[in-house]
Specification:
The protein is an all-alpha fold. Helices cover 70% and strands 0% of the residues.
Length: 305
């Protein structure tokens, strides 16, 4: 039964179905390969034996995100996120799962000894999105990223057998940078949800207002706000880049591709003179292909050296 999360919730048959492990694995595989992302959830670069584990973890993230953003009612989203968190905590307490995502995720958690914290922290971020729509400074924005983005990188590292604090630190920088790049790419998308992730202290510093932002006013002051925001994300990407040299070559290629893709988003913002209010900057398929080629060439040169 291949349904996106919101459709799934509306289907009594899907919600009450007794899901076998094979059916659950098929569902998470389908879900992970049938949703738009800037880059594929699982690329051919990752070891094949890890693909299903990545599908399972992704599906948890996809469901969590959709419960927060696709329901259209704050109270209902909060109720569903509380239910989802209860399912997660029940899984870790030994309750037999019934939802296909948790049926599929259970063996992944067991096989890789994944702690509950990264999953639970993600839910904290999605719940926060329902109640916090403005951030005064970088500390607030980065505090959000600690829960919304960094757990994903840590889960990826743990799936690939890495658990040391140095790699986690570099991964956190990369994941926070990717989150910020996505925010700056989606300024107009988030405005429709009454969310502003640009720190308000930049508005005060440069003489811009939230009212002007909602009016889509691209002024010299707004450009200054975006220049600082883009530069901040760029510095985070550069902080995280050394992670690539501390990973297995195949995972390193994937992380390099994601990092370069995020920096490409920042380049696209610069190319339109920071005016993200006139249109959402998008990395095209040919550009993604070029990023992959460059990542492969960097890896080849590094190996030869």
């Amino acid at each position: 039964m291949q349904l996106q999360p919101v459709e799934f919730l509306k289907s009594q048959e899907a919600m009450t179905k007794a899901w076998s492990t094979d059916q659950a694995l098929s569902y998470t595989h389908w879900l992970a390969t049938h949703h738009y992302e800037n880059f594929n959830v699982v690329s051919f670069l990752l070891p094949k034996h890890l693909h299903q584990d990545f599908y399972n973890v992704y599906s948890f993230c996809r469901w969590s995100d959709d419960l927060g953003d696709e329901i259209g009612d704050t109270a209902e989203s909060l109720r569903l996120l509380a239910w989802w968190r209860g399912e997660l905590r029940g899984l870790y307490q030994g309750v037999k799962p019934t939802h296909p995502v948790f049926v599929a995720l259970a063996p992944t958690i067991e096989r890789h000894k994944l702690p509950i914290d990264p999953f639970d922290n993600l839910l904290t971020a999605f719940i926060q999105d329902q109640t916090v729509t403005r951030y005064d400074d970088w500390a607030g924005v980065m505090g959000y990223c600690v829960n919304s983005a960094n757990p994903v990188g840590r889960l990826v590292l743990m799936l690939c057998g890495y658990r040391d604090e140095e790699r986690f630190r570099l991964s956190d920088a990369t994941c926070s940078a990717l989150q910020l790049a996505n925010f700056w790419q989606d300024v107009t998308v988030d405005l429709k949800k009454d969310r502003v992730y640009l720190p308000l202290h930049l508005f005060r510093k440069h003489g811009y207002t939230v009212e002007e932002l909602f009016g889509h006013r691209n002024t010299p002051a707004f450009r200054k706000v975006m220049v600082e925001a883009v530069d901040y994300a760029q510095e985070l990407f550069e902080t995280g880049l050394p992670l690539i040299g501390k990973l297995d070559r195949r995972l390193a290629l994937d992380i390099d591709l994601f990092s370069r893709g995020g920096m490409k988003v920042l380049d696209k913002i610069r190319a339109q003179d920071y005016d993200v209010l006139k249109g959402r900057p998008v990395v095209s398929k040919p550009e993604r292909a070029m990023l992959l080629l460059r990542s492969l060439l960097r890896a080849a040169v590094s190996k030869a050296a």
